[in-house]
Amino acid sequence: MKGYFVPNRRNATILFSLVLAGLVAYSAILYYNPKRNGKGIEAFLYKVKIAPTEPFKTKINTEDYKDFNDNYRSVENINTYRQMRNDGAFSVLFGKGLGSKVDLKKKFG
User: Fold this and answer.
1) Model's pTM, two decimal places?
2) CA dihedral sign, ordered 56, 66, 103, 49
3) Do the Cβ atoms of 80 and 98 come closer than 8 Å?
């Protein structure tokens, strides 16, 4: 990407084209409206469809497998926020390496 963020007409055209292509591709996925229980590429497109909103959902039923699986990043965010809030401002400012130690309160395996 070196050089593509230098402000000139060519670079602006390239970046605008990439953003436009991404928006058109995402709009096509939304129009196709893939279902959660699809097979193969449809299941992948479903995850792409819900990806922009997934980390921001605040009400998740962790006992419901479908809701938990669809909003896993949000569950991680909620639990990380709770742990950081309990550990105080020092851990928020300087970190504690909690990214790999988030307790999801669920057994996997």
Assistant:
1) 0.69
2) negative
3) yes
